[in-house]
Design a protein that fits this description.
Length: about 425
């Protein structure tokens, strides 16, 4: 049985968590493949809201095994905090339900301190990271000095390695950044304890996934972040340090390119971005407030992980076309359509103006991007409340036309439309 992949097509926070939850009901394994607790995925079931950072969004369903794949970076403290929160709400977080790939890497307080120190040093040029130690953890992995999760099977060995790593990190903190040193003894002891708790969760990812495929089980790969935050293909350097794209799913889980069947691009019906970096369709003032919300609703545009107000703007089809190419999307899911209700007309960016030249493809260098102006097409809006729409025919004609326009411009069918955060507020199209 093949693998279905859910990918963020913009700058993250597209609603991947809620779509993963939706498709998890028919999946046997839900696997995160990249990133760490920089992700914040919201799943809303009735009145209950789950905010997930490391645990895959399939956890709310009983049927699916949840895997933290080899491409993920794990802060054990953060994972255990998440376990506790879920357990208190009656969610199964036992090793039968949740598995950790032995290839995943661990984040330490050293990585957190380096992330903070580097951001401080960058000053006005800061990336605006989530300060979760993601960049430094992937840097260590690439430098082949990372700490793999399989070491948790031997707590003594792990504690020694963590001690050495913190001692070395202290040199960098002190001599490069002039920052406070960390207590290597205390942190090593902490990781000794984490190892004892988390060792039962360790699994050989290849055996689990290939075994499942051989048994005709369905695997759902849950993306974190978004295509425009990809280390290579996003708006470098304002990106994350991993590969949140479809090829990153294959890489992070050790799967071949032919294993992918559905590659589902989740796109918000407008654009949002947290942190620094270029954003061609960005809005400010009243218009931004309409899209962002004041924070009164749980779905308003404030970071799930950091609480920061998200930057917002009109839908950018240059970005979506680019994401379609990079990821080979077989379909798009459009979320937050309900937020566009009452905005008339609705501008949609179809190309960029670069000093008089029309660009339909996303430019790769930040200097060009900085000079790009959006070229908008204005589509007619709608005023009807669509949050209770259940089928395509329930949507006003202009909402249907907006979706069809996106589909035509990206040459990709829109398979699911979401009109509210709750699990049932979705329109599945044939
Ligand atoms: P993710 O990181 O891609 O999983 O997305 P987040 O959970 O960070 O942010 C998406 C936010 O929008 C969450 O608060 C969701 O509950 C909410 N949401 C998702 N889909 C919809 C929708 O169709 N309408 C509304 N109003 N909110 C939605
Ligand atoms: P989900 O999975 C939105 C952004 C940060 C920053 C940049 C680098 O919820 O969509 P990092 O801490 O990764 O080094 O920060 O990436 N970022 C996200 N933005 N959603 C996310 O995850 C993000 N994860 C990282 O804001 O600009
Ligand atoms: Mg999020």
């Amino acid at each position: 049985m093949p693998v279905n992949i859910i990918i963020g097509s913009q700058w993250g926070d597209e609603g991947k968590g809620r779509i993963t939850d939706l498709l998890a009901s028919k999946s046997d394994i839900v696997a995160r493949f990249s990133g760490g607790d920089n992700a914040g995925h919201t799943v809303t079931v009735g009145e209950e809201i789950f905010k997930l950072h490391l645990v895959p969004s399939g956890v709310v369903h009983d049927n699916a095994i949840c895997l933290l794949g080899g491409g993920v970076v794990i802060n054990p403290q953060s994972l255990l905090r998440e376990f506790k929160g879920l357990e208190e709400r009656g969610v199964d977080i036992s090793p039968n339900k949740i598995k950790i790939s032995r290839k995943a890497h661990l984040i330490t307080p050293g990585h957190l301190a380096l992330d903070a120190a580097a951001e401080l040093r960058r000053g006005d040029d800061k990336i605006g990271t989530t300060l979760r130690g993601i960049g430094p953890a992937y840097t260590d992995k690439t430098a082949r000095s990372g700490i793999r999760s399989h070491l948790m099977a031997s707590p003594e060995v792990l504690a020694n390695i963590v001690h050495k790593h913190i001692t070395e990190t202290n040199d960098v903190l002190r001599f490069v950044y002039g920052a406070d040193e960390l207590d290597a003894d205390a942190i090593a002891a902490e990781y000794h304890e984490y190892a004892q708790i988390l060792a039962p969760y360790l699994v050989d990812e290849a055996a689990l996934l290939y075994g499942a495929m051989d048994a005709d089980k369905l695997i759902l790969a849950e993306g974190a972040q978004g295509t425009m935050l990809d280390l290579d293909h996003g708006t470098y350097p304002f990106v994350t340090s991993s590969h949140p794209i479809a090829s990153g799913a294959l890489l992070g889980l050790g799967l071949g390119p032919k294993s992918a069947e559905r590659i589902i691009g989740v796109a918000k019906a407008f654009s949002s971005r947290v942190g620094s970096g270029p954003f061609v369709t960005e809005l400010d003032g009243e218009q931004a407030l309409t899209l962002r919300g004041t924070g009164a609703n749980p779905w308003d545009e404030y970071g799930t992980t950091t609480g920061r107000p998200r930057r917002v703007g009109w839908l950018d089809l240059v970005v979506l076309r680019y994401a379609g190419r990079i990821n080979s999307f077989t379909e798009l899911v459009l979320t937050k359509m309900d937020i566009l209700t009452g905005i008339d007309p609705l501008p949609v960016c179809v190309a960029y103006d670069f000093n008089g030249e029309t660009l339909r493809y996303f430019p790769s260098d930040p200097e060009t991007l900085a000079q790009c102006k959006p070229i908008y097409v204005e589509l007619p809006g709608w005023r009807e409340d669509i949050s209770q729409a259940k089928v395509w025919a329930d949507l006003p004609v202009n909402a249907q036309a907006y979706i069809e326009f996106v589909s035509k411009e990206t040459d990709t069918p829109v398979s699911i439309v979401s009109v509210g955060p709750e699990r049932t507020q979705t329109i599945m199209r044939e």
